[in-house]
Fold this protein.
Amino acid sequence: MSTLTISAPITAPRGLGRRPVAASRPGGRATPQPRPVAHPRVTVATRRTSAGSLRLTGRGRVVALLLLLVVGAVVSLAVTSSGAASSAAQHVPVQYLTVAPGDTLWSIAGEVAPHADPRDTVHEIRELNALDGSMLHVGQRIAVPLNR
């Protein structure tokens, strides 16, 4: 068995325990009672902070840093993607053709660029004319790329 030795009595900090009762003197005045002394190893730390102050722990600092990095990445992606969209518009030399009966995008692409892949040429014609589909109307004027 082990033995437990207490070197000094441990008392509650001031204001938390009961108040000692003062003995009364014959003249009606109370004799002051000694206040209990806390154990030297027991300390009560009180820290007063102002109402508007903010303390961050190590984990809070890491979370705040990660949050700033994510916001920065989103902003940089938004800036670079809008810059890439505006720089994609290039000046392409074009000529204008009038759609004849029986013309399709595929046949026009074959006439304009006979040695190029017709799929690429059709895609470029659709982009130049802002066409949603492959429908052409007789008499419609469309832009086609030159020098392909």
Notes: The first strand starts at residue 94 and ends at 98. The CA atoms of residues 47 and 67 lie 29 Å apart.
